[in-house]
Amino acid sequence: MSIEPVPSCSDLAQVQTNINEQLRVPNRQIHQTGPSMTDYVVRKKPLPINRMQQLDEQLVRMIAKGYHTLRLVEEVEFRKFIEMLNHGYTLPTRKTLSESLLPKVYNKVMEAVKMKIAKAVAICITTDAWTSIVNGTGTLLSPRISSTQK
Question: Which GO terms describe its cellular component (predicted)?
Fold first, then answer.
């Protein structure tokens, strides 16, 4: 039976250095062999404030013109759809829609209509009223604004 000498600390350090050098892979080779961890992370960058305001206004216009309920923003599938379209946009709540955004868009549209009426040369309003067994009664007011003289 032979007794092997115990390696000194300097010998162990040299062995460890040799192992590290053999296992060392240059950084450029790591990136070439596969994706990095950051490739699997979705970065959610916030949108600029003006872009958020544009999207909020367009959402209000879509809801108003399409006769959708404000509850639309609470539907899970709609929220997923918006998230897939743009990770940086967060839908407003129903309360924000009704108390802030809807009045803001309403006032903006109302001002635009007032400006159009102020510049109008002539305004014609057509009315129609009817009665139906199914729908009850109805009245239609259809304004037409002429902004140029003939």
Answer: nucleus
| Nearest 10 degrees: Cα torsion 117, 118, 122, 123 | 30
81 within domain boundaries: no
Q: CA angle at residue 86 from 58 to 100, to 5 degrees?
A: 35
**Residue 22 domain-assigned (yes or no):** yes
Q: Quick check: 128 and 150 in contact, CB under 8 A?
A: no
Bridge partners, 94 (sequence order): none
Q: Could you list the beta-strand ranges (E) of the chain.
A: 122-132, 136-146
Tally the domains of the chain.
1
Vertex 31: Cα angle to 28 and 36 (nearest 5)? 145
Question: Domain containing 19: what range?
Answer: 9-40
| Residue 17 neighbours by CB under 8 Å, 6+ apart | none
pLDDT band of residue 145 (cuts 50, 70, 90) is confident
pLDDT of 26 over the 60 cut = no
- Sign of torsion over alpha carbons 85, 88, 89, 91: positive
